[in-house]
Recover the amino acids of this structure.
């Protein structure tokens, strides 16, 4: 059995925050250390262009995200860690897939429909501000996955529909051109933490409530002290339920530490003290990584070198696979006689043929049919099948000259001229 291949993409359009760390980076780095699985992690920089048309930001974010993953312990020797735009086979496959994807399926994609709904609400034209890139995004995502024939794709729930579309697109391609693609499945992590942000809502760039993963120590402290709490005074018991502070603590603490904090809440710990404990706990986990991160940010060439190791490995897999796919769709050298992996039989030239049969008069006959099935000759009746067979043998061996010697046994068909018959016999002889 082959190993299960995992693949996931990270869109570099912002600065990684604690939510990204707990929800994606930390579990992925842990999983990458599991033996017997093959992991692909990539920076989806072509995807970033859909959301972000600020070149400096795309460039900066690519560096920050790559440096973050490396600082958090991703080992580029154990996983294939690359930048999407370093693998030219991906955009080329994107086009092949575009040509087998129904436009209607893309009309129904959630991300596109959400943009349309927003426009409808604002009374604008439905496609206002929607680029073709946003519309085509699920196809590019399918190309990301299918180029490596990944089995499992760890994603958030919001991405499940995209994985289903990738399966549909893979099936359409396979149906047309042969079984080239594995049908990928979404791998949804059920017990991965979703962190609350500073305001208590889910931590997300779009709510502007994030804590940057590698904020310097003093900034981290300041941000943590701004987490919303209720107005209970020190000494008053506090609810852990619905407390952003408690949930954040839990995401970084051991079970014992969490139990102790729960007790402290019940005992009426002051918010200032609780925030100090949260800060110390998070900082303890992050500070060794922060040091590595700062070093990588100061030496971007180290990050680039790590990505180039991945790019080479990715291209070594994707390049030859794309060659096969090009050939499968009919894009291949004209000098090569290779008719491709498929439909070889279908293109074999049809030949004229003899058909033997017996009539109701009890006699044995044969007909000579052209390649297209038209009847060219019919025999007279023979008393024995063997005699009919001998006659056929003579025609096959001698070709046209036999027509004269056997004339008394052959009946020319209406509308058929002698040259037709001679040519057909010649074709048979040429084919051996
Ligand atoms: N669309 C994903 C996101 O926004 C990122 C992504 C791009 C991705 N290509 C992918 C994820 C392929 C998994 C597989 O989170």
């Amino acid at each position: 059995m082959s190993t299960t291949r995992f693949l996931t993409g990270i869109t570099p359009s912002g600065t990684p925050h604690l939510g990204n760390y707990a929800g994606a980076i930390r579990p992925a780095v842990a999983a990458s250390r599991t033996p017997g699985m093959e992991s692909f992690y990539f920076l989806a920089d072509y995807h970033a262009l859909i959301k972000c048309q600020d070149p400096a930001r795309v460039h900066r974010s690519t560096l920050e995200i790559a440096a973050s993953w490396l600082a958090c312990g991703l080992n580029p020797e154990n996983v294939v860690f690359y930048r999407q735009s370093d693998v030219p086979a991906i955009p080329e496959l994107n086009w092949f897939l575009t040509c087998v994807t129904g436009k209607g399926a893309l009309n129904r994609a959630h991300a596109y429909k959400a943009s349309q709904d927003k426009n409808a609400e604002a009374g604008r034209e439905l496609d206002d501000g929607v680029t073709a890139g946003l519309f085509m995004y699920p196809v590019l995502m399918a190309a990301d996955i299918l180029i490596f024939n990944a089995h499992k794709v760890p994603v958030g729930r919001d991405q499940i529909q995209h994985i289903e579309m990738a399966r549909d697109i893979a099936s359409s391609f396979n149906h047309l051109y042969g079984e080239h693609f594995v049908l990928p499945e979404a791998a949804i992590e059920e017990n991965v933490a979703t962190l609350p942000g500073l305001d208590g809502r889910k931590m997300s760039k779009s709510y502007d409530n994030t804590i940057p993963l590698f904020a310097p120590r003093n900034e981290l402290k300041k941000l943590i002290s701004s987490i919303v709490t209720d107005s209970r005074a020190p000494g008053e018991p506090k609810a852990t339920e619905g407390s952003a502070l408690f949930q954040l603590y839990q995401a970084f603490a051991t079970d014992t530490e969490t139990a102790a904090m729960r007790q402290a809440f019940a005992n009426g710990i002051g918010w200032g003290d609780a925030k100090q404990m949260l800060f110390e706990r998070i900082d303890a986990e992050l500070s060794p990584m922060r040091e590595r991160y700062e070093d990588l940010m100061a030496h971007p060439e180290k990050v680039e070198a790590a990505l180039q190791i991945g790019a080479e490995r990715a291209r070594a897999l994707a390049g030859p696979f794309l060659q096969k796919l090009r050939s499968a769709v009919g894009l291949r050298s004209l000098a090569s006689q290779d008719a491709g992996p498929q439909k070889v039989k279908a293109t074999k030239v049809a030949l004229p043929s003899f058909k033997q049969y017996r009539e109701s008069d009890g006699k044995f006959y044969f007909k000579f049919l052209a390649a297209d099935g038209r009847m060219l000759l019919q025999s007279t009746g023979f008393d024995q099948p063997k005699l009919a067979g001998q006659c056929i043998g003579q025609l096959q061996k001698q070709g046209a000259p036999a027509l004269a010697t056997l004339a008394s046994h052959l009946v020319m068909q209406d509308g058929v001229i002698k040259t037709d018959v001679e040519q057909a016999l010649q074709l048979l002889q040429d084919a051996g």
Remarks:
- Residues 7-9, 11, 44, 47, 141, 144-145, 153, 155, 159 surround tryptophan (CB under 6 Å).
